[in-house]
Write a structure and sequence with these properties.
5 helices, twelve-stranded antiparallel sheet, about 300 residues, single chain
Length: about 300
């Protein structure tokens, strides 16, 4: 017996000192589990915690279909979100976002931009949306969905959360395709409006750790990913209803806290938009959301049409 005890002791594995992760498997085919995992990845399940995320890249465009797209401006910004779980399993998202356009060659922040098509010098209007809230729900008709105000039009848009898992790596695809009335009506805003309807595609692809998502001892998981957007020319570009569109190609990263954002971006934002470092307050729920188009309409007067 003593020999057997010594043998067992000799074969025992030493304590690695690494705490065992409290993992609970996620069924990504279950809409409620899928939605919860999505919230944990993009924000924080703790309603008292605000989460910062960075994005940056290049915006391409052209007004003709017989030549390649070319880089028009760069873009770099961040968002701050807070989430609140509801008794029915839905989540309220309180989001605030800002971004600045940059020279695609130097990366310097732009106050003016020379339109390569009209040769005009245009005053650049940064993205500064104080309120971009949304309700993420599980709909009986379409599964996961997003209820959101799009420039005064309340819409419920299917939110197909696509998950692909390879080993311990999870890849998430979330996209929203919308078309809604343009607040900048072309008869009022002939230089700034792209037309009576705005059509936008937003595609977000994130890569995260399955272990983090399944770890029940933490309320937030990290990610790195890409954001792709297809939409009309921006009002400040003064393109009117010219043919063409913009394609955004950006990276994005969940930094967690403001102090982990790029220093130059934080410095510029504190100088220009100091109110954008926290998520919207709870009383903002149910109010109209902001967008680059609605904010432009609020802050500017229509330019007269160009003379023939």
């Amino acid at each position: 017996a003593a020999g057997a005890g010594l043998m067992a002791s000799a074969c025992a594995q030493p304590d690695s000192g690494v705490a065992k992760v409290n993992r609970v498997p996620i069924d990504f085919t279950d809409p409620k589990q899928s939605l919860r995992a999505f919230i944990k990845m993009t924000g924080d399940l703790d309603p008292t915690v605000e989460t910062a995320g960075w994005f940056g890249g290049t915006i391409f465009g052209d007004t003709r279909r017989d030549r390649p797209l070319k880089p028009l401006v760069g873009v770099q910004g961040f968002g701050v979100i807070r989430t609140e779980a509801q008794p029915d399993g839905s989540f309220r998202i309180f989001n605030r976002e800002c971004a600045f356009y940059t020279d695609p060659k130097t990366g310097e922040f732009l106050d003016e931009w020379k339109n390569p098509y009209t040769k005009e010098i245009c005053k650049v209007s940064p993205i500064h949306n104080l309120t971009v809230n949304a309700n993420l729900i599980v709909s009986e008709k379409v599964g996961t969905a997003i209820e959101m105000d799009f420039d005064g039009t309340l819409m419920e848009v299917p939110l197909p959360l696509v998950w692909d898992t390879v080993g311990d790596t999870v890849m998430s695809t979330f996209e929203v395709h919308t078309a809604f009335p343009n607040e900048l009506k072309p008869e009022v805003w002939p230089r700034e409006s792209s037309g009576p309807v705005i059509r936008i595609a937003e595609i977000f692809q994130r890569v995260a750790s399955l272990e983090e998502l399944e770890n029940e001892d933490i309320t937030s998981a990290g990610y790195t990913g890409v954001w792709t957007r297809i939409g009309p020319f921006l009002p400040w570009m003064r393109q009117g209803q010219a043919d063409g569109q913009l394609i955004y190609r950006t990276f994005m990263h969940k930094n967690g806290t403001i102090d982990k954002l790029p220093e130059a971006l934080v410095k510029h934002a504190r100088e220009r938009l100091p109110d954008y470092f926290q998520a919207p307050a709870p009383e903002s729920w149910g109010t109209k959301n902001d967008s680059s188009f609605s904010v432009y309409a609020t802050e500017n007067e229509p330019l007269p049409p160009l003379e023939d």
